[in-house]
Design brief:
Butyryl-CoA Dehydrogenase, subunit A, domain 2, 48% helix, 3 domains, alpha+beta, seven-stranded mixed β-sheet, two-stranded antiparallel sheet, 11 helices, 9 strands, globular, Butyryl-Coa Dehydrogenase, subunit A, domain 1, Butyryl-CoA Dehydrogenase, subunit A, domain 3
Length: 405
């Protein structure tokens, strides 16, 4: 049985500055860290963890301040994701996906649609899930009077049972036209199968979902006016935005691995009996490893922060985003995601070199960091991210907008 320690937030002022929000995220992270290994082993639905994100206000970070949201920008959101992921990679992923799906109305919808969604989401502290796995193309959308009807199946639906609303995606029957809509997660015909059973990111509620005639009003079709989609280049910014979410929770998991290993080395690691040192922290090989891993992590964190800042002007002026702007930003995101993947995997693997054989005991839970990183970094091949960068450098070719580039 695992528990999330309660914190009284209601009598405390709402964070105002980016740093105050990052500090709030650090408080949440400390709560999650207390029993992270036990919760990972239990693998139960993270209702309490999502309640913590709601109670702390983190779910409203990007929401409009006039409706109770934090009124913050994406660079702050990425830092918050990173902070939460230090303690629990699953909850960092859930929060990051929530931010993306909350923002999806703005990415794809009309101004009237996204203003309505964001206001209601902030007021009600909605938690967003998404049934938008692009590898599954069997969700068909049909028109029935003033309604749209979604039918099909998705292999993955991150956030599923813990979400208040779910972003659906399908293709109009007989066309190539995609449609997004936000529906209540308890909608008739929407069935989450609770079959996520992977080695890592165990608490992300990412199992399959069946859509059996899920109905939603035509008016909820994001970006459609008079039943015709209104395209913008900004619509395609969903991919670099979510890829940068991935980057930051990878870095958060890596930082958490390093911090947890550091605590273990100081408190429990024994020096090698033939090394001539009285403490593990004095061993030159241990010192070198921590220095090497920390330097690499700090470098990629700084790169990730820079790329986040580069992307914010695109969110500030969405109607002005050009294909060149979007393409160059995607190249930068691809580059930092490639580096984050490598440093996170290396860190999560090498921490055992500086903690010792006894650190592999199951109660320590140090393996969860590698399992989490390894599981999610397989989302899309990192070699294709390097290819985007290489082609741009050699020929100036911009990545063509797809579900992954």
């Amino acid at each position: 049985m695992t528990t999330i320690a309660p914190i009284e937030w209601t009598n405390r002022p709402t964070p105002g500055s980016p740093q105050e929000w990052i500090d709030r995220a650090a408080e949440v992270s400390a709560v999650l860290a207390a029993d992270a290994a036990a919760r990972d082993r239990a693998g139960t639905t993270p209702y309490a963890e999502v309640a913590l994100l709601k109670d702390s206000g983190l779910v409203t970070l990007l929401g409009p301040a006039e409706h109770g949201g934090g009124g913050q920008d994406w660079p702050t959101a990425y830092r918050v994701i990173r902070e939460v992921a230090k303690a629990d990679g699953s909850i960092g992923q859930l929060l990051g996906y929530h931010y993306l799906w909350n923002w999806a109305a703005r990415l794809v919808g009309t101004r009237e649609q996204w203003e309505q969604v964001e206001a209601e989401a902030a007021r009600q502290r909605w938690f967003f899930g998404g049934a938008v796995n692009p590898r599954d193309k069997d969700v068909v959308v049909q028109e029935d009077g003033d309604d749209l009807v979604f039918t099909g199946r998705k292999s993955f639906s991150t956030g599923s049972k813990v979400s208040d609303v779910t972003v659906l995606e399908g293709v109009f029957e007989g066309t190539e036209d995609h449609v997004f809509a936000i529906v209540p997660s308890d909608s008739d015909g929407l069935t989450f199968h609770d079959d996520w059973d992977n080695i890592g990111q165990r608490l992300t509620e990412s199992g399959s979902v069946t859509l059996d005639g899920v109905r939603t009003p035509w008016a909820s079709a994001a970006g459609y006016v008079d039943k015709t989609f209104q395209p913008r280049v900004y619509n395609t910014l969903n991919v670099p935005t979510i890829q940068l979410v991935f980057t930051h929770f990878y870095l958060g998991i890596a930082a958490g691995a390093l911090e947890t290993a550091n605590t273990y080395t100081r408190a429990k690691s024994r020096p090698w009996l033939h090394g001539g040192y009285d403490s593990a922290v004095d061993e030159p090989y241990v010192i070198d490893a921590y220095g090497d891993l920390t330097a690499k992590l700090w470098a990629v964190e700084a790169f990730a922060d820079q790329v986040a800042q580069e992307g914010q002007p695109l969110h500030d002026e969405p109607d002005s985003v050009t294909e060149q702007d979007r393409g160059e930003f995607e190249v930068r995101v691809a580059a930092v995601k490639a580096r984050a993947t490598e440093v996170a995997l290396e860190t999560a693997q090498r921490i055992f070199e500086v903690t010792g054989a006894r650190s592999t005991a199951s109660p320590e839970g140090l393996d969860r960091f590698w399992r989490n990183i390894r599981t999610h970094t397989l989302h899309d091949p990192v070699a294709y991210k390097r290819r985007e960068v290489g082609r741009f450098v050699l020929t100036g070719e911009l990545p063509q907008p797809t579900w992954y580039s």
